[in-house]
Write a structure and sequence with these properties.
The structure holds 2 protein chains of 2 kinds.
Chain A: H1 5-14, E1 22-25, H2 28-38, E2 43-47, E3 60-63, H3 66-76, E4 80-81, E5 91-92, E6 96-100, E7 104-115, E8 120-126, H4 133-139, E9 144-149, H5 157-167, H6 173-190, E10 193-204, E11 208-211, E12 215-218, H7 227-230, H8 240-247, E13 251-254, E14 259-263, H9 266-278, E15 285-288, H10 295-306, E16 313-320, H11 325-339, E17 345-351, H12 354-363, E18 368-370, H13 374-392
Parallel strand pairs in A: 14-16, 16-17, 17-18
Antiparallel strand pairs in A: 1-6, 2-3, 2-6, 4-5, 7-8, 7-10, 8-9, 10-11, 10-12, 13-15
Chain B: E1 11-14, H1 19-30, E2 35-39, E3 47-48, E4 51-54, H2 57-64, E5 68-71, H3 75-87, E6 92-95, H4 102-112, E7 118-120, E8 126-129, E9 133-136, E10 145-152, H5 156-167, E11 172-177, H6 188-197, E12 203-209, H7 214-225, E13 230-235, H8 259-268, E14 272-273, H9 280-290
Parallel strand pairs in B: 1-2, 1-5, 2-4, 5-6, 6-7, 10-11, 10-12, 12-13, 13-14
Antiparallel strand pairs in B: 3-4, 8-9, 8-11
Classes of the chains: A alpha+beta, B alpha/beta.
């Protein structure tokens, strides 16, 4: 789960990490009021969307008067910001963060991740801040400093000192940097974060370190014990179809093709998309119905897949382990009737109760196309889409 | 022979009296598994499915000599249950739960250091040696005794590969699901090491997916250490980057996380690679033929 920059900064601030003075606003009037309240003579107005790349896309602007803050906020709020991470449709800006502008002397990078290779939390730092860290890692890997944390001990002082020296945060800045790293780590650990990024971590005016930007994401599987984080969830940043699906225990991800997919298990769902692609088709979505899928769950899956107007055919691929093919078949029949499905539906069933499932589909006298195996299913659904296109033309 | 579990395994179930645990314990017993009891804190001294229930894993081990545990407790309690089993001296621990907080696994893997246990999962269908022992939730009837080792991150894709092999008359020595989470108790390399030493495994199918470095690490290990052919497949060629594809661990965070990058690396390292998920079975057959292993 992702949160907005202003939420990440509030959270880090509560752990004692220095962040710029500022506040979020939902309207131009509120933006002006925030600027007035925090004072100063120059402000930064930052669009709050979950996607990165806001600066380059014009989502971060400097204002030199309260009126200018109001004007900039008015322009940003309600507009769609298109960054390299949002896709061509962009993201609707519903709130902005107003901060006092900082006099930045030098920028660093500080991040924490769950490092899959060593199965621990790793701190990453660089003297090259304020730029895309992936680029730094690619072009100048020697400028990426990594320090892995023993979970039994936590991030130790000497580890922080090693890192601060390696990136050049020495002298008076060293104790500040050590304190800051330990606080970010504590926040990361306490809140079940998956990723934290302070980019840039800047030296400002009077030789103080300041988290000028902050980005954090959290473990969905730990939200049951993280009420504070859960409350930060902004559903408007998520695809409504994906929210709808998760409410029904389905895992749905919208893609840009025209073949709807309903599969059980994440691996098989990906492999099904791959098989469709290999046959020259384009999947419209990833959808995992999970284990123990009831007929109602299957019907909901069909409904959600069909909310995507691009879908020209649906491939149902079920290899039942703890699922039951007879339940899946009943769900499909229910969906065919209640949703009045017009597009071709190709069904491949295997595993638990497969004979019963096939029998139920067969006797229903509805226009299912059955497939013998994965290859056959992918070939048939791609052919069905081509045939539909032929008819349309 | 087989790896990790066999007829000799003495299996307990943690969370024994729960609904899912009961269902899968019964199925495991039907599949030939020697289930010797179970653990449900607070229900020690009772019996369930005609088997003794204990309050702690330590007691269960003392009374039954159990050396394998199937953990069926909810995700929030899973890491603690694994550490309890580790502490009690259980040798193979299978943790089924999907949704274990990743930092719980970070701590669990730290706890395990220097201890003997092999932890399979979480977010796994489990492990099965067909006809001998099943600890997990997979449909046991699709697995048949044979000489192919299977190891996968995905459950249903494991079934898919097994069915393709069955259509060609190939069975499994042991099939292991290492799980779809970012941190697995046991990774591909550890399972390959077991298969490498098993005289009854001729070839190994390794089914990966997008995200994380372990497929390539395993391919590199296989090139340097293994004589037996390894057949690889990686799901998610068509997956977009930056999205978590169902499994917590299936996310492309960088170029090396993509399915194509992993399959290219596998090929360069000398593995047999099925580029099409529907061709896993036939790729295994080709590997057996080219290595004179077809029986």
């Amino acid at each position: 789960m992702n949160i907005h920059e202003y939420q990440a900064k509030d959270l880090l601030k509560s752990y004692g990490v220095p962040v710029p003075v500022g506040g979020a606003a939902y309207s131009d009037a509120q933006a002006a009021a925030v600027a007035e309240e925090i004072g100063g003579d120059q402000w930064v107005v930052k669009a709050q969307i979950h996607a990165g790349g806001r600066g380059k896309a014009g989502g971060v602007r400097v204002a030199s008067s309260i009126d200018e803050v109001r004007e900039v906020a008015d322009v940003l709020l309600g507009s769609r910001l298109v960054t390299h991470q949002t896709g061509p449709g962009g993201s609707l800006i519903q709130r902005v963060l107003i901060e006092q502008a900082s006099q930045i002397k030098k920028e660093y990078y500080l991040g924490l991740v769950i490092d899959r290779a060593c199965q621990r939390i790793t701190l990453i730092a660089s003297s090259e801040g304020g730029v895309d860290i992936e680029e730094v890692a690619k072009n100048t890997p020697e400028k990426i400093i990594r320090e892995t944390v023993d979970p039994a001990l936590g991030l130790l002082d000497f580890q922080c000192r090693k890192v601060t020296c390696a990136v050049g945060l020495t002298g008076k800045l060293m104790p500040q940097a050590v304190r800051l790293m330990k606080r970010v780590y504590r926040c990361f650990r306490d809140k079940d974060a998956l990723q934290a990024e302070i980019n840039p971590l800047a030296i400002v005016g009077d030789d103080k370190l300041l988290a000028v930007d902050a980005k954090m994401s959290f473990d969905d599987n730990a939200l049951y014990r993280q009420n504070l984080i859960n409350e930060m969830r902004d559903l408007s940043e998520e695809d409504p179809k994906e929210v709808d699906a998760s409410g029904h225990g389905l895992n749905y991800i919208a893609l840009d093709g025209n073949i709807g997919c309903i599969v059980n298990g994440a691996g098989l769902a990906m492999a099904t998309m791959d098989a469709i692609t290999l046959h020259g088709g384009r999947p419209a979505n990833f959808l995992d119905v999970g284990g123990g899928a009831s007929p109602e769950k299957v019907t909901n899956a069909c409904r959600i897949v069909l909310q995507d107007g691009n879908v020209k055919a649906i491939l149902v691929n079920i290899f039942a382990g703890i699922n039951r093919c007879d339940w899946i078949a009943r769900g499909l029949i229910q969906a065919m009737r209640s949703l009045n499905i017009k597009v071709p539906l190709i069904v491949r069933l295997a595993g638990t109760n497969v004979e019963e499932g096939r029998e139920i589909l067969h006797t229903a006298e509805l226009s299912f196309v059955t497939a013998e195996n994965l290859d056959d299913a992918a070939a048939k659904v791609v052919a069905a889409v081509s045939a539909a296109r032929g008819k349309a033309a | 022979m087989s790896i990790l579990v066999s007829k000799q395994s003495r299996v307990i179930i943690q969370g024994f009296t729960g609904q899912h645990a009961t269902f899968h314990a019964e199925d495991a017993i039907k599949a030939g598994t020697n289930v010797v009891g179970g653990v449900t804190p607070g229900k020690g001294g009772t019996t369930h499915l005609g088997l003794p229930v204990f309050d702690t894993v330590a007691e269960a081990v003392r009374h039954t000599g159990a050396d394998v545990s199937g953990i069926f407790v909810p995700p929030a309690f899973a890491a603690d249950a694994v550490m309890e089993a580790t502490d009690a001296g259980i040798r193979v621990i299978v943790v089924i739960a999907d949704g274990v907080p990743v930092q719980d696994m970070v701590r669990e893997q730290r706890y395990k250091l220097g201890r003997e246990a092999i932890v399979i999962g979480p977010n796994t269908p489990g492990i099965i040696t067909p006809g001998e022992c099943k600890v997990g939730i997979m449909p046991s009837h699709i697995y048949k005794p044979g000489r192919i080792g299977v190891v996968s991150r995905s459950g249903t894709l494991n079934y898919e590969a097994v069915e393709q092999m069955a259509a060609l008359g190939l069975g499994q020595s042991t099939s292991v699901g290492i799980g779809g989470d970012p941190i697995n108790g046991t990774d591909f390399v550890a399972v390959l090491k077991e298969f490498a030493q098993d005289p009854d495994t001729d070839a190994i199918v390794m089914i990966g997916e997008i995200g994380g470095p372990q497929e390539v690490a395993a391919a590199r290990w296989a090139k340097e250490n293994m004589q037996k052919p390894v057949i690889g497949f990686v799901a998610g060629v068509s997956a977009p980057s930056g999205r978590r594809m169902g499994h917590a661990g299936a996310i492309i965070a960088g170029e090396s996380d993509t399915a194509n990058a992993k399959m290219n690396a596998m090929e360069e390292l000398g593995l047999y690679v099925a580029r099409n998920p529907a061709h896993i079975g036939q790729t295994v057959m080709r590997a057996l033929e080219e290595n004179g292993l077809k029986r």
